[in-house]
Structure formats: structure tokens, C-alpha cells
Amino acid sequence: MSTHVNVADFKNKLTEYLALVEKGAEVIICRRNKPVARFERVVGKSQHVNESKLGSMKGTVKIQGDLTEPLIPECDWEMLK
User: What's the pLDDT tens digit per position in 21-43?
Assistant: First the structure.
């Protein structure tokens, strides 16, 4: 099933067209009644899915020094003013 829609209508009713696409429909987006883009459901696994597990890198970072101390000595603070 394919639905043709102009850009302005697509922008105004995006959630409705998204619901159609989730059900398997295809939406053709037109500018001045000429097709310019296709809005369709993604099939399969996305390449940009973050599959990292929380805590999987635990213990791999070593913090050296005190994170609350300034990075430059106090005598050099005057140059920052």
C-alpha cells in the first residue's frame, strides 16, 4: 500500500504517517505533486544500535591523581585574570 502526500501535509501529520509506516505502508513524499522521497519501514536490525552492556568496561580505567585538585599551580592563576 502506497500513500502520496505533499510536504506540508506530511509535516503537519507526521505521527499519523509514522503509524501507517509502522503497519507496513509506504508513504511517498511529494513536492508540487512530484515524488521526491519515500518514507518506509526499516526491515531488519539497525546498524546504529548500541549493544554495549552497562558495566562491561568496569575496571579498565585507572584514575591517577586527585580529580578535585586544579590542573595548574595556584601561582599561575594570576595569568588567567
Answer: 999 999 999 999 999 999 998 87
